[in-house]
Design a protein that fits this description.
Layout lengths: L1 E7 L4 E7 L5 E5 L6 H10 L3 E6 L11 H8 L2 E5 L9 E3 L4 E4 L2 E7 L8 E5 L2 E3 L4 E2 L2 E2 L9 H10 L9 E3 L10 E2 H7 L8 H8 L10 H8 L5
Parallel strand pairs: 3-4, 4-5, 5-6, 10-13
Antiparallel strand pairs: 1-2, 2-3, 7-8, 8-9, 9-10, 11-12, 13-14
Helix pairs in contact: 3-5
Length: about 230
Amino acid sequence: MIFKQLFDTKSSTYTYLISSGNGREALIIDPVLENVNEYIYILKELDLKLVKVIDTHIHADHVTGASKLKNITKCSTIMGNHTPAESVEIKVKDDEYINLDNIKIRAMYTPGHTSDSYSFLMNNYLFSGDTLLINGTGRTDFQNGNAKDAYNSIFNKLLKLPDETLLYPAHDYKGEKVSTIGKERKQNPRLQVNSVDEYVEIMNNLNIKKPSELEFNVSRNINLGA
């Protein structure tokens, strides 16, 4: 299998490139518009054909490269079926599988950060979007976010996965690249709560500044960055 974790310094976004290596088909998760040329270069270097691109949710801190990648490579665009993005070609449901050569990727509906947030599980690789971060969790104060939904997504879905499941988030702001479900359950400060009400209290009092280009990014991303 070919697996590459790429980083956008401006938005601290992780983008993931995946291929089984067998049929040379590739998939990209959470592409950033400004980095599309880099992705195309890597695909050519590895002799891969991009066939699918996934956005975990409508991002607020960067513009997706999904439309530009589709224009260049003719790949299919994929999001969860709760997305407001009408131009998405394939909308997957909770527990539906995405196929890539002999790789199967399970879609998991994990709302809370936004109402359209999905995570994607490939074997023991969890691509959690902004739902579960390394030593943190996604904010729930805009884009129909809901702290109770986030608690349910994290505690009743993601943390039910095996401890050794590798956690690959859509963002990290401290240079961390990967964690595990077991490590996050034990050490993530946001998860050391005894009830949903305690978690909601934490999330409702974060007082984090909103992304400076939130409205522009969201409006672009509803059209897949076009």
